[in-house]
Amino acid sequence: MSKHQYAMVMDLNKCLGCQTCTIACKKLWTDRDGTGYMYWNNVETRPGLGYPRQWDRIGGGWKDGMLQPSPLPTMEDYGYAWEYDYEQRLFEGKRKPVMPSPEPKSGANWDEDVGSMNGDENYFFYVPRICNHCTYPACLEACPRQAIYKREEDGIVVLDQDRCQGYRYCIKACPYKKIYFNEVKGKSEKCIFCYPRLERGEVNACAKQCPGRLRFVGILDDPESPVHKLVLVHKIALPLFPEKGTQPNVYYVPPFNPPKRDNYGKSILEDSRLPLDYLVYLFGPDVKNVITRLEAELKRAQAGGRSEVLQLLIGRDAETRYRIRPQLVQIQA
Amino acid sequence: MRTRQLVILSVAFLLLCVALWAQGTDAVKPAPGQSLSVIASTSTVDSLLTGGSAAWNQVAVKHIGLNRTPPLYDTDEPAALEIPVVDVRLARAGGKLLVQLSWRDATHDAVTLPEVPNTPPETRFRKVQTEANDRFFDAAAVMFPVKGEAGAITPSLQMGDAEHPVDIYYWNATRGAMLMEAQGRGTTRRTGQNFPATGTYQNGQWSVTLELPDLPPGTPVAFAVWNGSQKDRDGRKYFSVWQVLE
Q: What is the pTM of this model?
C-alpha cells in the first residue's frame, strides 16, 4: 500500500464536453512519434461506444482474485490518428484544400452527443477519463517485467519505459483500457497523473485547463483536501465500474437532476430523464444513495439554506478545488 | 468440460515444471542426442551471414524438438504446437560462431516500420504514427550461460538464475537483433548492444543466421522461436531444452 494517495474527483454535472482537458494533456504528453491515436485523457459521450470502442464490455480487472484479461482493442476501436496535408497547402502552393488522411472513419468520441432515447426524449452526458491510478492495479499484476509500479509516496501508477518490452498484457488486464501501445517505440504508455507538475506544487494539466472547473485534486487521506471531503466525508463521488475490483482513485459526482419536459424539479429517483439503470451500470448501486444526498443538498439550497457540499462543488477558486502537497508526499531521506 | 480442461492443463503444467526443474536446477549430463556438432567452415562470416545456401551446404543439420510454454492465464488464446521443430546448423568461421535456425511457419509476421526522422517531433508538421497495436512479430533466440562451465551444470531454462546468468542473442523479424542478458525469469534486460544477424522468409520457411562470439566445446545452448500469428511474445513461445556444443 502507498503511504498517501493522490485522487481526482470530476463533477459530471459540470462537464460541457469541450475537450480542453484532452488537448491540454495531448500537447503536454502525447504530441510525439507513435502517440497520435492515444489520449491519456479523453472525454466520451455516455451512453455511447466509448474510447476505445466497447472498452467497458470486453473485460479486464479482477474476479475472485484472478485477472480477467480482455482481447486487445484494435486501431479501428481507437481510431487512427489522421494528419492534414498542411505542407502542400501552405508551402508548396498546391491549390488543394487541406484534407485529412487516412480518411477519418472512427475516433475518440466519434459518437459525440448521440446518446440514447428515454421514451421520446434524448439524453446524454460526458465522462472525462484518465488512468484511475487504482489501489489494486490489474495492469501492475499482469506485467511479467515488473515495469509498472505504484509510487509508494503518492499512489501514482507509472510505467517504466526502460523495463517495458511492449508485451501488452497490461492493456489486456486494465478494465478501463487506459494503457496505450506505441508501436513506433515498441513500448506501452499511460497517464502519469502529471507527477512532475505535482512535485512542483502545480495541479494536473487536465484540471488546470478545465473551463468547467469540474475537477478536484488532492490527497485522499488529507482531511483538508477537497477529494477527501467529497469522497469520504460527504460521500457524493463514486468510482467508475467498482465491480472491476481495482479500486480506482478517480471519482465522479454522478449527473443527478437533468430536467425532463413538463417535469421540472422532480427527482431522478421519481421520474428520471437519465434512466437510473444506466447510472447504476456505470457507478454501481450506491449511486442511488449519492443522488439522494445530492438532491437533499439541492433542496436545502433552494429553500434558502446553505449547503457546504454545493459550495464545494461550485469550486469558485483553485484553492477550493486543488490541494497539492509535495512536502507531505516527499519520501523521507 | 471446463473442469476436465483445467485438470489436463494442470497435469501438463506439472509435467512441464518437473521437466524444467530436472533441466534447470540439477547438474545434467547431456544425453547423447543433445549434443550439437560444429563445423569449422571454410566460408567467410559474411557469406555465412548473408545466407547463400552454398555456404551452409557442408554443415550438417540437427532437428531439435520445440515445446510450448504453458499459458499464463486461462483466458489466453490457445496455443497449438504449430512449430514442432527448429533446424539448427552451426559453423565456426573468423573467430565467430554462426548459428543458422530454420523453421517452417505458415505466416510471415513481419513488417517494415515507418522510419523515424532524426529531427525532434515538435519541429515537424507530421509525426510518425502507430499503424497497429495488436500485431506481434516472428522472432528467434539463442541462449547460453555467461560463465563457461563446460560439461557441468546447465542454468535454469527460465533465463538462468542469480548464480548462473545467461546471454540471449535475440532476433526479431521487425525490430532486428539485440543482445540481452538475464539472471532468472522476468529479469531479461536489453544491453543496448546489437550483433550481426540476417533473416529471410521464403516458401513458408524462416532461415535466420546469428553471429555469436565463439563458444568453447561443452557450452550448453538453448533455442527459442516466437510465432507472431500466435501472439507470441515474452514467455509465450517455443523453446528447446539445453543442447551442448561438441
A: 0.90
Cβ atoms of residues A217 and A229 within 8 Å:
no
CATH number at residue A122: 3.30.70.20
Domains contained in chain A, number = 1
State whether B73 and A69 contact (CB < 8 Å): yes
In a domain, A94, yes or no: no
Q: How many CA atoms lie within 13 A of A272 on its CB side?
A: 17
The verdict on residue A101 lying in a domain is: no
**Which residue do the cell numbers 488537448 mark?**
A23
Alpha carbons within 13 angstroms on the beta-carbon side of residue B164 total: 23
User: What is the residue range of A211's domain?
Assistant: 6-79+108-329
Q: Is residue A102 part of a domain?
A: no
- Alpha-carbon distance of B126 to B118, in angstroms, equals 13
Q: Which domains does chain B have, with CATH numbers?
A: 2-245 (2.60.40.1190)
- The pLDDT of residue B149 is 59
Q: Do the chains contact at A34 and B175, CB–CB below 8 Å?
A: no
Q: What is the ipTM of this complex?
A: 0.89
Pairing of strands A250-253, A238-239: antiparallel
Per-10-residue mean pLDDT for chain A, 333 residues long? 94 97 98 96 97 97 94 96 84 81 90 92 95 98 94 97 95 98 97 97 98 97 97 98 98 85 72 89 97 92 95 96 90 56
Q: How far is B117 from chain A (nearest CA, A)?
A: 10
How would you write B100-129 as a 3-class SS string?
EEEEECCCCCCCCCCCCCCCCHHHCCCCCC
What CA dihedral angle connects B241, B168, B226 and A176, to 10 degrees? 120
The number of beta carbons lying within 10 Å of the beta carbon of residue B112 is 6
Q: Cβ separation of A83 and B233 shorter than 8 Å? A: no
Q: Which portions of chain B are predicted below pLDDT 50?
A: 1, 17-18, 20-29
CA distance B92 to B41: 6
| pLDDT given for residue A307 in this prediction | 96
Q: Work out how many CB contacts closer than 8 A connect A with B.
A: 88
Interchain pair A86, B122: CB under 8 A? no
**Confidence (pLDDT) at B150:** 52
Whether A280 contacts A37, CB under 8 Å: no
pLDDT confidence of residue A116: 95
Residue A291 lies in a domain: yes
> CA–CA distance from A270 to each of A106, A118, A276, A294, A307 (Å)?
37, 15, 10, 14, 22
